[in-house]
Design brief:
The structure is a single chain. The chain starts with 22 loop residues before the first helix and ends with a strand. Helix 3 (107-127) runs antiparallel to helix 8, helix 12 (251-271) runs antiparallel to helix 13 and helix 14 (302-312) packs antiparallel against helix 19. Helices cover 66% and strands 1% of the residues. The protein has helices at residues 23-62, 83-104, 107-127, 131-136, 155-161, 176-179, 183-194, 200-212, 214-226, 228-239, 244-247, 251-271, 277-292, 302-312, 318-335, 339-352, 360-375, 377-397, 406-426, 434-437, 439-442, 457-474; strands at residues 75-76, 475-476. The relative contact order is 0.16. It is mainly alpha-helical and 479 residues long.
């Protein structure tokens, strides 16, 4: 299949000016952009280093971080496991052949390969901790959803009574993750159990397989909003995402996929790249409504969703999307669950526990170190290029010449996700564990890697994979 070659704008910071520079001038600009990428990556390394050093000082002094190996919720535990060979092989194969395959495979073949590759990468990382500890038992611990399956025998009655068990001290208060999420999260596993897929192993497989499909949603969205060339270039980084350390096995990977497909369906509807755009718009709305009943914080995904019609320069699918988005809230409200009441009770519960002890002054910046580890240094460099490309793209969307370049449109999509992440950070409701909790936002930072020059792509892929492998082999992450 014929693919597009790199253009001068690919190597000058993604400004998308569309006007080729003279050779010498172009070369100088490319070198400056490359140096700036390295500076951005070095800043990411310094941020992580500072978070580790300062975090250990604070934790050793008073234990207030409630994290044994800050900034990550982890403990020192060097180990190997059955997933070690598979993870190393996956990393080598994607680094060596991922960019070539992404450029040459037919589009549908690329989507299939990306889903399979992402699933294999997440499973292999989880299996470094072994089948039982790393997969089958992860969702059965005292904090997890599977511990309360039997309390949902009468679902309507449980929904009506759900808010009475959120705050610590109430009779039969929910485990941490059940209390910390709307009931849609737990209902997912209740329904799995009812169709015969009960237990930790099936729940883990579901979260990994469905969660990995979020890569497809991101690729489809980038393709319809910014072009196939950039989607193909982002594909290896999405497959080899460092967040796999925490996606396997965590329900947050599943949450990320649901949110991502909501964005993808809205993008398909807005660009009319699907046979029935109205159905896609309603479907996207339904998934966004469900997203808000999986995690309270994922209402912030509205920042990414708002970027879609802005980039497509149409509001046509918005009414149908909003109609679909109302279905799930109305259904839960009629069933007796009040989202707002539950959220305010969750805030109370949050400050009853570790959230009331962990210092905001540390976590408000250390969370970003966690995000750096989970997104990877390539995404950090890509964010720098996104920031460079954004002003020109904004001017173009306002109607000024020239038209927004594909790089500019991608930059705005990525920065919308960054805005959602920063809002979550500043809220104070995300102190620690953000390497896991922020997966729905981190997924949308990874496409920024498409803005990096092709000549160094394998080095950037290695820079993403190696720290992830080290973390998974040196630490016990608990997720």
């Amino acid at each position: 299949m014929k693919t597009e070659n790199a253009t001068p704008t690919d190597t000058v910071g993604g400004t998308g000016s569309g006007t080729p520079a003279p050779p010498d001038r172009h070369h100088d600009r490319a070198r400056r952009a490359d140096r700036a990428d390295l500076v951005a990556a070095a800043a990411g390394v310094l941020l992580v280093t500072a978070a580790v050093v300062v975090g250990h000082v604070i934790q050793n002094r008073d234990g207030s971080l409630r994290a044994q190996w800050p900034p990550l919720l982890a403990s020192w535990d060097p180990h190997l496991g059955p997933g070690t060979p598979a993870a190393l092989i996956m990393a080598v194969l994607v680094v060596a052949h991922g960019p070539t395959l992404a450029a040459r495979l037919p589009w549908r073949g690329l989507l299939a390969a990306a889903w399979a590759g992402s699933t294999a990468w997440v499973f292999s990382m989880a299996l470094i901790d072994g089948w039982h500890r790393g997969v089958a038992k992860r969702l059965t611990t005292k904090h997890e959803y599977l511990r309360v399956i039997d309390r949902f025998e009468d679902i309507p009655a449980t929904l009506r009574d759900f808010t009475n068990h959120i705050v610590i001290g109430e009779p039969g208060n929910w485990p941490a993750h059940v209390a910390g999420h709307p009931p849609g999260a737990t209902l997912t596993f209740v329904w799995l159990d009812r169709i015969g897929l009960g237990g930790g192993a099936w729940a883990a497989v579901f979260c990994v397989v469905v969660g990995s499909s979020g890569v497809l949603a991101a690729l489809i969205t980038v393709r319809v909003l910014a072009g196939e060339r950039l989607a193909r270039r982002a594909a290896p980084f999405l497959v080899l995402a460092p967040a796999a350390v925490w996606a396997g096995v965590s329900a947050d990977g599943y949450f990320a996929a649901v949110a991502a497909w909501s964005v993808a369906l809205l993008a398909l509807a807005a660009t009319r790249r699907v046979r029935f755009p109205g159905v896609a718009a309603v479907g996207g709305g339904l998934l966004f409504g469900w997203t808000c009943y999986l995690s309270y914080g994922l209402g912030l995904m509205v920042a990414v969703l708002l970027a879609v019609p802005a980039l497509a320069r149409t509001a046509r699918p918005v009414p149908l999307f909003l109609f679909g988005a109302l279905v799930v809230p109305v259904a839960f409200t009629l069933a007796g669950f009040n989202w707002w009441t539950a959220y305010h009770l969750l805030v109370e519960r949050y400050y009853q526990g570790a959230g009331g002890v962990r210092p905001y002054g540390y976590w408000v910046w250390a969370n970003l170190a966690c995000a750096t580890l989970a997104a990877g240094l390539a995404a950090v460099a890509g964010l720098r290029r996104s920031a460079v490309a954004a002003p020109g793209a904004v001017r173009a969307l306002r109607g000024g010449p020239p038209a927004a370049s594909p790089e500019g449109r991608l930059a705005l999509l990525v920065l919308a996700a960054l805005a959602a992440l920063l809002a979550a950070d500043l809220s104070g409701m995300s102190k620690a564990e953000t390497e896991r909790i922020w997966q729905p936002f981190l997924l949308w930072l990874l496409p920024a890697t498409a803005l990096l020059p092709r000549r160094g792509v394998r080095w950037w892929l290695a820079a993403s994979a190696i720290p992830a492998l080290l973390i998974n082999h040196l630490l016990w992450t608990g997720w």
